[in-house]
Write a sequence for this structure.
């Protein structure tokens, strides 16, 4: 049979109709207009394709709630058991409690989700059991302040509030545990950095060792796919796909993403994992570990959480610093904006081979958590079923 251009077109149209109607694979091929955003030079194919239907769905989920009316200035209140929110006015304190109830516990009046309402200062229920929600929330306050004050390289121009992750619910999206399926996340968001491409053929000791392996490559690509999905973007949002390794040819977003991964390691190892003894068993994973976060926990499908709404600028309780400059974007190690058009260089590599931002990544557990019996991170037992990172 002779295949004409015409029959090819009809065939293509037919398969579009068939695939488009196939409910199980709505993302494979969807008829209708697409929007294309360019991230690189013209002609290099560095573009992201968006489907307007998908945008409409994620947009509805990513609207920031209106801020509560501002609180008047005043001296800090007199409390019996306040350990983090010590430097805000009494009115701001109450405002923050109301906001937290709406952001995490479903409604502004839901104080009882975290409190024994007969005694707001208490960390236990009337029956004397640990109020895990309040203890967790206190750690979340420390974590949120840490993100907003020490990780400006990643969250710089936008910042985070409880709502960024929680969206009105106690359980955010994308929480994960140690399991065989989540080895990939454990490697990158809890412990190691990525290292697929080797720059040497010789087997070298230590940091320079060639750690390339099929398994390692699989892990990297899986992580890359979860990152892309978390942000709702293509690979070319960060890379020029002709040279995945090259930092010079990547977009500035790749550096921001890397700071995001080191931030997540800190959050998971030093704030979320150490809450393990506080949670009830029903909240823990099959290996007894605490729930952890990943990129999608903040990003929820868009390139900047809540499309970059600067919610946190309305809530001084979450800055943990004298002022918060909501206009600054991510900065490089020398304090210059990352997006100044200069070619990228790979961020500093530590002797262990781990690439880290300047912010320290192993904070010591705050005294109060130690007193509470929370195991410091350095003393956390390794999960025995997790095999050592494969070396070639
Ligand atoms: C998501 C959890 C959460 C919700 C919901 C919440 N709180 Fe709190 N509350 C806390 C935490 C955590 C502290 C301790 C903060 C610290 O240590 O800096 C606290 C402390 C307090 C204190 C100080 C008590 C003392 O003397 O030590 C008061 C008063 C208070 N909250 C009132 C409220 C009210 C009123 C509501 C409802 C509008 C509310 N809280 C909702 C977590 C919560
Ligand atoms: C980076 C994302 C992130 C931010 C920001 C964040 N949280 Fe969380 N939060 C989590 C994760 C992950 C969990 C674990 C979920 C679970 O309990 O299974 C969690 C759990 C909690 C829980 C326990 C929920 C439960 O019932 O198990 C409370 C309460 C809480 N957070 C309060 C807060 C408050 C208050 C803030 C703001 C000061 C905040 N969180 C900010 C990620 C976040
Ligand atoms: C949000 C930005 C971002 C997106 C999207 C992204 N990557 Fe990456 N990619 C990175 C960063 C950052 C690194 C370096 C991580 C490190 O060294 O710790 C990296 C590393 C890699 C590496 C390893 C390069 C080396 O030198 O070892 C490969 C391969 C890769 N990405 C492929 C992909 C593919 C395929 C996709 C699409 C499925 C993708 N990436 C999407 C940011 C991104
Ligand atoms: C604690 C919340 C949080 C987590 C977790 C997080 N991000 Fe982000 N990310 C943000 C915020 C907030 C911004 C906006 C920063 C700004 O406006 O400059 C952002 C911005 C970015 C950008 C720049 C987007 C742009 O168009 O300028 C990239 C890329 C990115 N994140 C990648 C990642 C990756 C990859 C991960 C997981 C490894 C991750 N993020 C984890 C909060 C988070």
């Amino acid at each position: 049979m002779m295949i004409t251009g015409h029959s090819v077109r009809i065939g293509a149209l037919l398969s579009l109709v068939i695939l488009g109607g196939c409910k199980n694979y709505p993302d494979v091929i969807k008829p209708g207009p697409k929007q294309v955003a360019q991230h690189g030079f013209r002609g290099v194919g560095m573009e992201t394709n968006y489907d307007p239907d998908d945008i409409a769905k994620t947009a509805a989920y990513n609207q920031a709630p209106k801020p509560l009316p501002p609180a008047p200035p005043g001296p800090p209140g007199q409390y019996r058991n306040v350990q983090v929110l010590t430097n805000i006015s009494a009115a701001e304190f109450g405002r923050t409690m109301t906001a937290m109830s709406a952001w995490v516990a479903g409604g502004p009046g839901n104080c009882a989700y975290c409190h024994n309402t007969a005694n707001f200062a208490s960390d236990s229920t009337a029956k004397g059991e640990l109020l895990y929600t309040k203890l967790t929330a206190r750690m979340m306050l420390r974590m949120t302040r840490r993100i907003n004050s020490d990780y400006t390289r990643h969250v710089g121009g936008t910042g985070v509030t409880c709502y960024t992750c929680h969206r009105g619910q106690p359980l955010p999206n994308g929480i994960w545990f140690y399991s065989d399926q989540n080895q990939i996340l454990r490697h990158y968001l809890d412990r190691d950095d990525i290292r697929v491409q080797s720059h040497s053929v010789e087997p070298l000791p230590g940091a320079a060792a060639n750690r390339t392996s099929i398994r390692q490559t699989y892990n990297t690509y899986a992580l890359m796919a979860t990152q892309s999905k978390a942000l709702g973007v293509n690979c070319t949002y960060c890379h020029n796909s002709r040279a995945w390794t090259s930092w010079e040819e990547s977009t500035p977003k790749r550096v921001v993403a890397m700071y995001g991964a080191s931030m997540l390691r800190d959050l998971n190892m030093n704030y979320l994992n150490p809450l393990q003894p506080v949670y009830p068993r029903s909240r823990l994973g099959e290996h007894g570990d605490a729930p952890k976060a990943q990129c999608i926990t903040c990003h929820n499908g868009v390139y900047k959480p809540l499309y970059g709404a600067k919610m946190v600028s309305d809530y001084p309780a979450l800055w943990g610093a004298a002022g918060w400059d909501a206009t600054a974007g991510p900065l490089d190690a020398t304090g210059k904006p990352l997006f100044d058009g200069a070619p990228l260089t790979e961020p500093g590599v530590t002797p262990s081979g781990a690439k880290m931002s300047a912010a320290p990544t192993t904070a010591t557990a705050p005294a109060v958590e130690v007193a509470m019996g929370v195991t410091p991170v350095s003393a956390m037992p390794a999960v025995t079923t997790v095999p050592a990172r494969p070396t070639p």
